[in-house]
Amino acid sequence: MTERYQVTIQSQMGPREGVLTLSYQGSYVTGSLDLVGYVNTIQGVQAEDGTLHLFHPIQTIVSTIPCETVLNLQAGNLRGTSTSKSARMRWKGTLIHPETQEESEL
């Protein structure tokens, strides 16, 4: 199963818009975060309570920041926090419905 979310990450430089794509194989999660013109690879696990624990970089024009992100998914919405050595960034996002994805590909 693959899901796509439109996300906003509150960074030190202000809000950043992107797309989070997640694929599930049991409790293992892989995917990508398309943010500020870079595609960052994601991997992690989904806990029994549904919480996602993800590990990924956030690449910017200046540097690449390794992050650990914890996201809670509920009714097509996500909220959570990324933590790195230098910052904490809040996430919010909404599920992109499959019919919307197909229309955008036309």
How would you characterize the overall build of this protein?
The chain has an 8-stranded antiparallel β-barrel with strand order 1-2-3-4-5-6-7-8. The two termini are 22 Å apart. The radius of gyration is 13 Å and the shape is globular. Strand 2 and strand 3 (28-35) form a beta hairpin. With 106 residues, the chain is mainly beta. It has one helix at residues 98-104; strands spanning 2-11, 14-25, 28-35, 38-46, 52-59, 64-74, 77-83, 88-95. Helix content is 7%, strand content 69%. It has 1 helix and 8 strands.
List keywords for this structure.
8 strands, globular, single chain, 106 residues, mainly beta, 1 helix, eight-stranded antiparallel β-barrel, disordered C terminus
Topology:
Layout (H helix, E strand, L loop, with lengths): L1 E10 L2 E12 L2 E8 L2 E9 L5 E8 L4 E11 L2 E7 L4 E8 L2 H7 L2
Antiparallel strand pairs: 1-2, 1-8, 2-3, 3-4, 4-5, 5-6, 6-7, 7-8
Anisotropy-based shape = globular
What pattern of helices and strands is seen along the backbone? Answer: EEEEEEEEH
Instruction: Note the total helix count.
Output: 1
Strand content range: over 45%
Strand order of the largest sheet: 1-2-3-4-5-6-7-8
Q: What is the C-alpha radius of gyration, as a whole number of Å?
A: 13 Å
The class by helix and strand makeup works out as: mainly beta
Q: Averaged pLDDT, please?
A: 90
Say what oligomer this is.
single chain
Distance between the termini: 22 Å
Biggest β-sheet strands, sense, barrel = 8 strands, antiparallel, barrel
Tally of extended strands?
Answer: 8
Portion of residues within helices? under 10%
Low-confidence stretches: 100-104
